[in-house]
TrEMBL record, chain A:
PROSITE patterns the UniProt entry points to: PROKAR_LIPOPROTEIN
Annotated spans, Disordered: 41-79
Record's protein name: Tetratricopeptide repeat protein
Annotated organism of origin: Desulfoprunum benzoelyticum
Compositionally biased intervals (Pro residues): 41-62
Source species, domain of life: Bacteria
Amino acid sequence: MTATTTRPLPTARLLPPLPFLLLLLLTVLLYGCAVTVPAPTRPARPAPTEISPPAPAPPSTAPRPVKPRPGKVAQPTGPAGSLYLEAEAALRSGNPGRAEILIERALRIDPGNARYWHLLGRAKYDQGAYPQALQFFRKAESRIRGDRELAARNREYLQAAAARAGGQR
Amino acid sequence: MADTSRRVKKRWIVLSFIALIITAISLILGPRVLRLDRMVKDRLEGRIWALPAEVYARPLELYPGLELEAQALEDELELAGYRREDEPAAPGAYARRNGSFEIVTRDFPYPSGLEPSTHFTLTLAGDHVTAITGVDTAESISLIRIDPARIGSFHALEHEDRLLLSRAQLPEMLVKTLLAVEDRDFYNHGGIAPRSILRALVANLRAGSTVQGGSTLTQQLARNFFLTHERTLGRKANEAIIALLLELHYDKETILTAYANEIFLGQDGGRAIHGFGRASRFYFRRDLADLSPEQIALLVGMIKGPSAYDPRRHPEASLQRRAVVLAVMRESGIIDEPLYRQALSEPLDHSTRVMKGGSRYHAFLDLVRRELQREYREQDLNGRGMKILTTLDPQAQRQVEQQLDRTLGAIEKKAGVLEGAVVITGRDNGEILALAGSRNPGMAGFNRAIDARRPIGSLIKPAVYLAALEQGYTLTSPLQDSAISIPSPGSQTWRPQNYDRREHGQVPLYLALAHSYNLATVRLGMAIGLDKVIDCAKRLGMPGNIAPYPSFLLGTAEMSPLEVGQMYQTFATGGFHQPLRCIDSVLDADNALLKRYGMEVEQRFAPTGVFLLNSALQQTVSAGTARALTRLIPATHAVAGKTGTTDNLRDSWFAGYTGDKLAVVWVGRDDNLPAGVTGAAGAMIVWGNILKDLHPRPLELSEPPDIEWAWIDSRTFAATSRRNPDAVALPFVAGTAPDNAAVLPGMEAIEEKTRGLIDSVRSWFE
């Protein structure tokens, strides 16, 4: 996955999910052939009040405060890539405050980058600000698109931050 | 013997006489000296060392790929006080050549540390930065920032503008020239120099007019500092006493520094230019340290008469005076003969464009000051020489100022003079990029962006619909847009109406929002419960206590544009509450970080509900009340937004966001009479005109994983084929799409990309 603001070429984006796309294409195609006339005389849908609200997710069992691994991350590219690397280095050398300043600058340039939000979460995590770290991991989660490695690591951190934030709130 | 005793007696008489005179003088002058002494201490310590807080805009980040017009870059440089030169070498200079810039930045203290001056070239092509290269290293630079423009200062004294320097910051050439011209005995006299006075007296008598001043620097400081400009003997005496007291209390270097910061050197409109630091910026657009010998000569020469030797108004007199000072510099050995000749031949290179001393950003500075006052006392704000780094984006601010006034002028009808307010923030970081509290940016006054609380009308509706989506409604849930009356105990029955005074029957939820139907909204809000809607509005960031009246559903709540911005930020971020910020950090006079206002987020809504709502707000622009916006910003940008109009067209609102910016615009009248424009005809046009020139990024919503898309007939709001001309693709939480809908699992993007392919394949079968 790329971490730049420039968008990848459509073809590049299409290549990985090609088998899936072909399947999708087939489905749509078949469907398109089968149903050519919409059904305008559909009966009215049930009154909205009858729609039961989605059941709230069961309270997750308190996650054990696992020790998340920083792990290796794909080299980010793009204008703020150097800031990311600098921030990561600051984090490794035990200077999360500096990492925070650097990564916020990176986010100003490339705000959609989930990797940056994740690193901001880690900067907060390393400063012991677990509730805020948790929020940044959530933000990162909302921005992750397809990067499974990042998603897994972010999840790990998110759970650890949630466990630690419990006592801080 | 007799002789000796007579001598002793005589000595006694003389001593007694002297003692008597001293006692008399002490008795007469004592109280005055004590009074002046207190004044000297109070004023000097309370004033010279009261450094104003300097406020800076955000630094401009430059990197290859950045969308940037050459003119915008030049404007930024000019605003930051850069001077245009043919061969820039010293910090704070730039050259603009065909399609490229050569820039030498200045050192600047950022929260992450001091960033040293950098000399680089920047190439532009087709409004994009294509390359940045270091001049000395010839290496390409991936990211660099221009030290930010100073946009204002908080100073205890109005109408004065100064930039205070320490003794170490005063260039030696300036100090030597100053002493050679104004006070050769500075380091030897005790505040007043009787010999100088005599010498001046003789010279003046000989010439028949005042050709030489006898005042020491200390006396001049005393004069410039404390007293009015009357010329009386009493004042001369006070001046002398103060000079002596200054010398008594402070060392020479302190007095010299005070003088350099205090001396009056001209007038910039209503602001007096005090001190060499500010004068250097004002006349030459450079820092004092970067001045050439002839520029130093010009400034020192101006002390004699800032108005008479003003290089802009009296270039001839200014040049003559400069030559006199240069001659003194040569005689004193400050410059050698070749340098003297070269300096003498230099033309007056003062910047022809007057740099305004930062009085333009009233609304924004007002907000910054209010924020700071929560944490700092007034005297700290004015006195500690703090540097306040803010989030202001000068390009966005200029666009706001130009377009607000221009557009209001174009849409004004007979109704009278319209006013307006604008807030622009970064969509993902909540930084306030621009703020207008009035259509006249030059006027400090009522800050409508912060202080004008007006009913928000339909801007409340997204809160109602989001509450419904949270309750399990879908974008196609059918709503009844028909008359409703709600009895309220103790007052009249409430009978809301649609804007077009018609009923629209059964409508799908997303269209009821897109078309801003009042009746459907009230019915929806009452069905899910006012408490749910109010809770949703509060989580979105609506401040204050909200009375649970049904009319709340149609936006009777009063909010300022800034508060609306805070609320809509929660939509724009995908459900994360994010406090809006105008300050990035505060540094002290020694550039140490005092406080950082870091980013904060708090997830307040599940991503799915907000995603559905944001999709509906995109429909508002593509097919609803804000359709006309696509004339200003292409439909492909998929802007999300909402119009708002209040009773009798009193208030016209638009709130919306692109991929990178959120903006809220209010248009109305100060006297609360009808403004005569709807949200779409007023505020939305202002919004579009501002955003269209700010290179808005297209809005791509972050799609949660449990979203699927289905084709819906926009008239029957049932599932349909995508070949139906009325078909619209809408997102649903997995499992909630209408029956029989061909569900496309997620990623509208993929769907879009395959469309062309599908069409061509389909064409083979037809």
